[in-house]
Structure formats: structure tokens, C-alpha cells
Design brief:
Length: about 400
């Protein structure tokens, strides 16, 4: 009898030591989505939100939650997003604290969330809200050749960020409501942005272009901003892989966008260090520069999705996995409460404004960092889904 007890005790101890790590029991995508919902019980709190707001960062986080819902079939992720959408979209389709006349392209991004909510509920207020966003884009100010200004206060300027904020929504709206002119517009914006921001020497893209060449940050000859901010190129990469979801195979602009994706996919690994990409992308060895979470998660997602869609060679999956492993080793932390936390996320980055942001290397590396910024955590969740992690 004593021997049997010893055997059972031995087995219990062994099973305890051999128990798989939590990361092996639950996918990282689900683990991190659950962590975000623990940190931010209401979706408006994503990205450290302080008030109910139709913010682009909340849109990024909510898109990730909807993808988690589709992956798992667990309605809690959908309900989390639906509660936010229901509270922020009024019965007439107007949107809480949204003013179309500011012509702020950032507002358009959260419209992507509404397609699933409208499809599930059938509530016409969500279609009205999407139509309201489209109305903004019908009247949105443009450059001379048709590129959308980033905001009314940033006149004559196209930013890489703005392509992610608007083009996938426009493409999805056109595909969903049989208005192909919006697919054409989405494609045209990508082509114009490539034309005005691509740098052939590095294979990278300038954060922004000023058509007037009057901004202090703008090169007086080209209108380019002076540096290659990592996250801006992350927005650009994600915009291209996402917009193609809605561009028909026979569309005249589809192959051009795939070509841009392939060029960028070939370029980026030369700037990757220990799996991570840096705040200022092209000079990882420069003193003061550092690996940053959002650029790395955005590239991870874009690479993985582009491989899965067949836009780029399967060999590039290794680049995405290298990014995941770099994040896991350096920037991803498990907290005492069992949640995951993503560190060293750039809080914000831009050009111009007050105080004036000059686009210098010193400006970008001086921006504030924080943990669990939705511009990093949303792409991390979506990237893990694409990688099956």
C-alpha cells in the first residue's frame, strides 16, 4: 500500500512538472485578446481611452476582437465590440463626437467595424453611419492629382497613416454595397501614395509628402518628410494587404499593389534586428534608436497575411515568425495576474502641428512610449491569428 501511494505521488509531481506552458494550451491571439479585455473592460478604453470616442486606435483593437470572434466562435468578443458600436452610433446614424467638417481621415478607420455589426444586427443606423463616413470622403479635400489630405489642418499633405485609415474601408464599402467606384478610389489612393512617398534608394517610404513643399519638415525639392518612421510604413503595409481583400482579381490596379507589397517584403528584412524593427527604420544601429512594438507587430501581421493570401513567397513566413519570436523574447511580458503585456509601444507620431513636429530623427526617438497601445496590440492579435499562434 505504501508503495502504491509513493507511485501516485510520483505521478502527480511528474504531471505537475510536465504540464504544458499556458502559451501551449491557449493560442497567443486569444490570450492577448482576453488580456486586453481584462485591462480595458469597455472597448472605448482600448488604447488607454479616457472617454467614449470613435477613435482610429479603438477601431484597430475592435477589428482584432472581431477576428478573434470569427476564429473562436466565442460571442464575448463580438459583444465587446457591439456594445461599443451601439453606444457610439445614434439611431439617426450620427456618430458620437464625430464632426465631418474637420475632414480628419483618421475617423474613417473605425467604420470597418460596422460592417460586421450591421450584418449581424440588421440595424439601419450602422448603414447610415457608414454612409456618413462615405459622405465625408466624397467631399474630402485632395491634392491636385486626387490624393486625400490627411486632415483639413494638414493641408496638401498625404501621410502613409492615412492609407490605412481610409482605403480598406472604401474598398469594403464598395464591395459590400455594390458601388465599385469606391474600390477604384481605394486603389487610386494607394497608387498615388506610392508615387509620392516611395524612396528608390532604400526601398522604403517617407512618412509623408507635402504637395506645397511649404512645411518646415518638407524637402523643398521633393516635398518628402526627412525620415522613415517605422509605424507609418507599418500602416502602409497593412493598408495594402487589407485593401486587396476587396479588389477583384481582374481589377487593373490589383497587380500594381501586389508589386508594391512584394517590393516592400523584399526590402524590410535588411532592417530587421533580432526579429524586431526600429522606431526609425533605416538606421537601427544609430545611437538612441530602439526596437519598437507597433512597427514589429504591424509588419508581422502584414507579412503573415500576404503569405496566406499568396501575394508573396511562402519563405517570408519566416520573417513573420522571426518577428513573433523577437517580440516574445524582448517586448512581450506575462504579468502576475496571467495577462500578457506588450511593452515599448510608441504612443503617437506625426508631423507639423503645435508644438511643431519636424520629422527629425531626434523627434521620432523622443516620442513617448507606453505599454499595450492598441496600434501595437491589435496587429499583434491579428498577426498571431494569421500565423495560427
Amino acid at each position: 500500500m505504501k508503495t502504491n501511494k509513493l507511485i501516485w505521488l510520483f505521478l502527480i509531481v511528474c504531471l505537475g512538472f510536465c504540464r504544458p506552458a499556458f502559451s501551449q494550451e491557449r493560442k497567443y491571439s486569444v490570450w492577448f485578446a482576453d488580456s486586453e479585455m481584462t485591462r480595458f473592460p469597455q472597448a472605448w478604453q482600448l488604447d488607454h481611452g479616457k472617454r467614449l470616442f470613435f477613435g482610429y486606435a479603438q477601431g484597430v483593437g475592435c477589428c482584432a476582437m472581431l477576428k478573434t470572434w470569427k476564429l473562436t466562435g466565442d460571442a464575448k468578443y463580438y459583444d465587446y465590440v457591439h456594445q461599443w458600436a451601439d453606444s457610439i452610433i445614434y439611431s439617426d446614424g450620427s456618430i458620437h463626437k464625430y464632426t465631418p467638417e474637420t475632414y480628419n481621415i483618421d475617423f474613417i478607420n473605425s467604420g470597418k467595424v460596422l460592417f460586421d455589426i450591421y450584418r449581424q444586427t440588421g440595424n439601419p443606423k450602422y448603414r447610415k453611419a457608414m454612409d456618413l463616413l462615405i459622405k465625408q470622403m466624397k467631399n474630402h479635400p485632395r491634392t491636385c492629382d486626387g490624393g486625400y489630405w490627411h486632415k483639413l489642418i494638414y493641408q496638401h499633405q498625404m501621410w502613409l497613416d492615412g492609407l490605412y485609415m481610409a482605403s480598406p474601408f472604401l474598398g469594403q464599402y464598395g464591395a459590400t454595397f455594390d458601388q465599385p467606384e469606391w474600390i477604384d478610389e481605394a486603389v487610386n489612393q494607394v497608387k498615388l501614395c506610392h508615387l509620392h512617398t516611395f524612396d528608390s534608394k532604400t526601398g522604403l517610404y517617407h512618412h509623408a509628402w507635402d504637395e506645397s513643399k511649404r512645411q518646415r519638415w518638407a524637402n523643398p525639392e521633393t516635398g518628402h518628410s526627412p525620415n522613415f518612421w517605422g509605424r507609418s510604413i507599418g500602416w502602409w503595409f497593412m493598408a495594402m494587404v487589407d485593401v486587396l481583400d476587396f479588389v477583384p482579381d481582374n481589377h487593373e490596379g490589383r497587380q500594381a499593389i501586389i508589386g508594391y507589397i512584394r517590393g516592400l517584403a523584399e526590402t524590410l528584412p535588411r532592417y530587421q534586428r533580432d526579429g524586431l524593427w526600429y522606431q526609425v527604420l533605416d538606421c537601427p544601429e544609430r545611437e538612441g534608436n530602439f526596437p519598437e512594438a507597433s512597427v514589429t507587430t504591424q509588419f508581422m501581421y502584414a507579412y503573415a497575411k500576404a503569405v496566406n493570401k499568396g501575394y508573396i513567397d511562402k519563405k517570408y513566413r519566416r520573417v513573420a515568425m522571426k518577428a513573433f519570436n523577437g517580440l516574445k523574447k524582448t517586448l512581450l511580458k506575462e504579468l502576475p495576474d496571467g495577462t500578457l503585456s506588450l511593452t515599448r509601444c510608441c504612443q503617437v507620431g506625426g508631423l507639423g502641428g503645435n508644438p511643431y513636429r519636424d520629422g527629425s530623427f531626434e523627434y521620432y526617438i523622443g516620442e513617448k512610449m507606453r505599454d499595450n497601445d492598441a496600434k501595437a496590440t491589435g496587429p499583434f492579435i491579428m498577426g498571431c491569428i494569421e500565423l495560427g499562434l
